[in-house]
Amino acid sequence: MQIKWLNRALLNLKHEAEYIAQHDPAAARIVVQRIYAVVNQLVDHPALGRPGRIHGTHELIIPDTHYLIPYRVRPRLKQIEILCVFHTSRRLPKNW
Question: In CATH, what is the architecture of 2-87?
Fold first, then answer.
């Protein structure tokens, strides 16, 4: 399996990092590194996340942060699609 970040997910990550960096650039780097490190574990463990609240998805919790990464496993394409980077203080959308 390979990881495919949707453009929206990359944009979410960029915006979150920019927001955190306004207050603490080092913390922004740590959060981004942590997100990438945990997401990369999906390559070997695609079922690592819990079943998603939105049908057909999984949710990967990023430890020691308030971030959740919804993703979809595409077995035929041998891909894991990262749908977005979601801060848990926000209201859950109806779809990713």
Answer: 2-Layer Sandwich (3.30)
What gap in Å lies between CA 63 and CA 87, rounded to an integer?
Answer: 13
Q: How far apart are CA 93 and CA 57, in angstroms?
A: 13
Closest CA to 82 of 55, 46, 34: 46
For residue 92, pLDDT beyond 80:
no
Q: Quick one: pLDDT at residue 89?
A: 85
How far apart are the C-alpha atoms of 67 and 10, rounded to whole Å? Answer: 14
CA separation for the pair 35, 53 (Å, rounded): 20
Number of Cβ within 10 Å of residue 83's Cβ equals: 21
pLDDT, one tens digit per residue, over 9-63 is: 999 999 999 999 999 999 999 999 999 999 999 999 999 999 998 899 999 999 9
Question: For the chain, which residues make up each domain, given as ranges?
Answer: 2-87
